[in-house]
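Entry for phenylalanine complex. Fields follow.
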Amino acid sequence: MATRLPSADVEAGLLAHLNTNAEIADSRSFASSLGVPHKELEDVIKSLSAFRIVESSDITKETWVLTNEAKGYAASGSPEVQLVAAIPPEGASKGVLKEKLGDVFDIGMKAAAKNKWIGFEKGNKDLVLRKVEETKDELQEQLKRLENGEVIADKVIDDLKRRKLITKEKSIWYSLKKGPEFVVKRKILATDVTREHLKSGEWKDLEFKGYNYGAHGQPISVGYVQPLLEVRDAIQSIFLEMGFCEMPTNMFVESSFWNFDALFQPQQHPARDSHDTFFLKAPAKTTQLPDDYLEKVKQVHESGGYGSKGYGYDWKRDEAEKNLLRTHTTAVSTRMLYKLAQEKPFAPKRYYSIDRVFRNEAVDRTHLAEFHQIEGLICDYGLTLGDLIGVLEDFFSRLGMSKLRFKPAYNPYTEPSMEIFSYHDGLKKWVEIGNSGMFRPEMLLPMGLPEGVNVIAWGLSLERPTMILYGIDNIRDLFGPKVDFNLIKNSPMCRLGM
Ligand code: PHE
């Protein structure tokens, strides 16, 4: 076998040949004349064609190639010859032969028997006897010839096909001639002027590689922003522009007290059922509640006050102490309002938050057991429903939703309460986008906020507007383990309007 040429020599051989010959008609036979695999020559051809040193045209052909099994026979002989060679003059048992030959045994036995190269002793089917001295390995020869690209008779091809020793493969090889930039030896072009080039004066004689202005740069892998975070940012900016301060929402676990009781939500309210709310097993209860405020909350639930009759039931501290995953960020608003009420003198505030809440819901296309809530509130003297409507119109128009409608609704902690609807130009219908209201005096006065101070507030999910903006109709495509990373990667950086 010829020793392998390094690719620089393959290139030199090819260029030398083309220098004295008009063309190379077939790269495959040229590769075998050089003694290199065609693949190696192909790499050289591609590189030379790129610099137009040679010109190549494709020749596509279907050829027969050896299967792995056949490659084995081409190297070590056909199964039948291997079998016969393994039989000593006195014969050998099938077991011994099988052990020696392995996989080749069964096929070898069949083919050798067909050729009448082996036989058996009368009455002993187990002892294999050799019937011939010399065996000529035609199969091996044929396979080798095929491997070398020699022409093979159709009858032989049919035979090999039948034995599943060859398969058809499409292959490309090339015809070659000199290109416009033909040289016998490629110059190595300089890519940069170095300090050494300048010092030695070598730069004067160097030939430089041209710039490829059309080349693409390496794609940069940057961070991507999840659509929910993108919309959260936009909404956050709107709140900040409107003078709102962010509330600290870093507590997923809340007590029932701050999530429900302080909001004047009675203890037998259905939302406080474990079918609607996730309660904690450990720690099941909170240990810290402000006692004198708690006493006032108990009273307003049981017997009212501040012009209210209350609910008239036996309020239990036990129930208020139960820990849960907050069902709304209004729990945080309540804590903040209580804190504000303790600061004297009273100063008006605008607060907002955007964070996660949890509800024990069956998961479907539009519901998840956890989602994000956007909440805004304004606390000041003499606020009215008109102020609430005005603020909502301002807020939502900044999001691109300027056609709003309000529908009376009910929340235990607000009176009046309004659902907010917006006309969606794309969907051509009114869609519900949020909930709002004025916090009840039964909620605000026990906290210690001054008489005459009102709170207007609203809440909406972050997922709803994000789904509308991004045209996503299944919430699980937006949040959770099934989100396709490409959605995040390919989503636009900015959008104007809803
Ligand atoms: N907490 C309400 C909800 O969960 C939203 C809301 C906030 C309603 C503030 C009125 C006022 O939907």
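NOTE: The two ends are 73 Å apart (CA to CA).
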